[in-house]
Design a protein that fits this description.
Order of helices and strands: HEHEHHHHHHHHHH
Number of domains: 2
CATH topology of the largest domain: Helicase, Ruva Protein, domain 3
Strand content: under 5%
Strand order of the largest sheet: 1-2
Radius of gyration: 24 Å
Largest sheet: 2 strands, parallel
Helix content: 40-55%
Length: 292
């Protein structure tokens, strides 16, 4: 650290939340940085998930960037097709007779992944316990789908359901009712009925299979035209579930706003509204300019 500071190198500390006992030492190192003795090119990069052990002083004095998972079925589908599908480019452009089946099951699987992620926003209505499903779960399922389609003559739905539902996604599930829920959802997306162009995944027919020989670029165009807001019906829930979700989101937003309110209003401020305005203006001034 000291050597990098003097020579103008960059230092990268990854996953700081995994070393809470070392955070006081990190806080000390950052606090003792002397700008007069520090090379102008020296930088310290830190990555961490939200953690109470992370030094507050570093958060206040440093530039912060957040990386959040996509929200909504549309965003999840788009992310999946842009990050997971390119590795199968050669297969998708081959003359293999299994290509079309792979395309349909791929879309169905990506839609299932998005539904599992988005059900968490409904709280206990979605799952009894919120689970952190990741891109890695989807990645291994796509790889297994590709492998099993090439290995078996017929589509091995039982194998696909078991590996995806009990191992890849089910391996994170600790509640028996949640596992039962996931397996029932998966049964709708790993099914012979989805192997056809025009198959609808919801009653309005917004989410549906595309025709035979549809290119990947057209899949992306279709996904980009999907609605931003998802209907609870797509998740197998009543419309009132959307109201409960909106209320919970509102309460969280209000709690964050209340946390910004000062506990004691200073003599220089005539009201809570003025203090809030001053804080908002201060936060706006701290926002960096967009990267060109």
């Amino acid at each position: 650290f000291i050597e990098a500071m003097e020579m103008g190198n960059w230092v990268f500390f990854q996953n700081c939340h995994l070393a809470p006992s070392w955070m006081p030492r990190l806080d000390y190192l950052v606090e003792t940085i002397n700008l007069d003795k520090t090379h102008k090119d020296f930088r310290v990069w830190l990555t961490s998930t939200p953690s109470a052990a992370f030094p507050v002083a570093i958060l206040q004095n440093g530039c912060k960037m957040t990386v959040e998972p996509p929200r909504g079925i549309k965003a999840n589908l788009l992310r999946a097709y842009l990050s997971q599908v390119p590795q199968f480019h050669d297969f998708l452009n081959s003359e293999n007779p299994k290509v079309q089946t792979f395309k349909w099951l791929l879309f169905s699987l990506c839609l299932f992944h998005g539904i599992c992620l988005e059900r968490r926003k409904f709280g206990p209505l979605g799952f009894n316990i919120p689970y952190e499903f990741t891109d890695g779960d989807l990645r291994i399922c796509i790889s297994q789908l590709h492998m099993f389609l090439l290995e078996y003559t017929d589509i091995p739905f039982k194998v696909l359901e078991y590996t995806a539902g009990h191992i890849n996604y089910g391996g994170r599930v600790t509640d028996d009712w949640d596992r039962r829920c996931i397996m029932n959802i998966l049964a709708d997306y790993y099914d012979m009925e989805v192997i056809s162009g025009g198959h609808n995944f919801d009653e309005p027919g917004i989410y549906h299979q595309l025709p035979v020989d549809t290119e990947m670029i057209n899949y992306l165009a279709y996904i980009r035209e999907l609605p931003v807001n998802d209907s609870p019906g797509l998740f197998g829930l009543h419309d009132n579930a959307d109201m409960s979700c909106a209320q919970a989101t509102t309460y969280v937003s209000l709690a964050v706003l209340l946390s910004l309110q000062p506990r004691v209003v200073g003599s220089a401020a005539s009201s809570q509204d003025e203090v809030t305005k001053l804080m908002a203006e201060s936060l706006l001034q701290q926002i960096p300019q967009p990267i060109p």
